[in-house]
Amino acid sequence: MLSDHADTIALTARHLHPHRLGLFRSFGVEIVMGKREGYRFADQSGRWLHDLHLNGGTFNLGHRNPVLCGVLAVALTEVDIGNHHFPSPARARLAQQLLATQGFGADHVVFSTTGSEAVDVAIKAARRATGRRAIVSIDRGYHGRTGLSGAAGDDDAARYFLSDSPAEFVRVPWNDAEAMEVAVRTADAAAVILEPLPATYGFPLPAPGYLAAVRDICTRHDALFIADEVQTGLCRSGDWWAIEHFGVQPDILVTSKGLGGGLYPIAATLLTPRPAAWLAENGWAHVSTFGGAELGCHVASAVIDISGQPETRATIAASARHLGDGLRAIQRDTDYLVEVRQTGLIFGLKFDHEQGALHMMKALLDEGVWAMFSGFDTSVLQFKPGLLLTPDACDDILKRVRRAVTVAAAFRHAAPLGIPG
């Protein structure tokens, strides 16, 4: 069993992902996670950090949430992953719970293990329903790294593996409804896929009426609207799904990350009747051995129960006000934090440097806070507080953020950091 920090780093560099490790090290970040609980984790030296990354929202309800741990422990005394060919009480109950969270007419659920796989299911369902192939998304959008999901997002990684398909996946600028109209019409698109707030792009807000315009474009051209809520869903916006916040109804919705409570990988694709029709025609058109594993379903059911409690909703609203007000106060006191993007507990903090979020990430780490830059816009820090955060924790985080902004601002005129090859 590994216990030495240096050994863990060396073996990671040798056998796992040397480039990613080298990239983080060039930014002054070398974390090996140790103990973890609530919204904090310790590194191997025993230093505790506030977690404001939450692995994309995977830990919405905290690390090792005691209720979820208890549910998993009890489930392990009775079941395992189950058999994906057979009906399962846990799987059926979770499908019913998920469908009860939405009002856009979804009546079927397909379970999988990751957000990427769930996006693949969404694209396949849209293609089957429309008889078309083209998928429209946005520049610098991210929908995963598997086959179809990788090609649907920013295609550098797909191109790297020769998995891109430019004839079938079309990208247009964010907030440009006119470009979206042209793309959907000329490509004869099967679907548009969007995150209501594009996470890897730094959570830029949709322009007033933009998402409604996209919905209208899809309706007029008989294309389906896929809402990717892998990072923005499960009450992080204050509503079950961020798309609700903008009054728009999709045809398909994808969720993952926080659904498994940080304890068991599970994802789901929610389908309205038209894209769900294949489920009554071909029961083996898509199968996933671990999709909807019974252990994961037990955990996810508890995630839905906790997230939907009135007390949880009240805590989310209070933390959103508390942190939003505090961050905007910091913005008023410095010209380095130039924008606070907020929808509920979804925050993007934009700084006055093209890599300002990298400098801020390191400054926050030195202050005992872990948060990450946005992969497609390194001027923006992803800031993802937990759904059950306490007022005292909010105050402590804001104090640390204020100090870190002062430190990071000293690098305002620094040359961009190089990316190791």
Account of the 3D structure:
- This is Aspartate aminotransferase family protein.
- GO terms for molecular function: identical protein binding; putrescine--2-oxoglutarate transaminase activity; pyridoxal phosphate binding.
- Keywords: Aminotransferase, Pyridoxal phosphate, Transferase.
- By secondary structure, the protein is α/β, with parallel strands linked by helices.
- The chain is built from 16 helices and 15 strands.
- It has 2 domains: 130 residues, Aspartate Aminotransferase, domain 1 (Alpha-Beta Complex); 242 residues, Aspartate Aminotransferase, domain 2, CATH 3.40.640.
- The longest helix is centred in the C-terminal third of the chain and has 24 residues.
Radius of gyration: 21 Å
Provide mean pLDDT, rounded.
95
- Fourth-level CATH superfamily of the largest domain: Type I PLP-dependent aspartate aminotransferase-like (Major domain)
Assign the CATH architecture of the largest domain: 3-Layer(aba) Sandwich
Largest sheet: 7 strands, mixed
Shape by Cα distribution: globular
How many domains in all?
Answer: 2
Distance between the termini: 31 Å
Count the strands? Answer: 15
> Per CATH, what is the topology of the largest domain?
Aspartate Aminotransferase, domain 2
DSSP summary: helix tally:
16
- Pick out the low-confidence regions: none
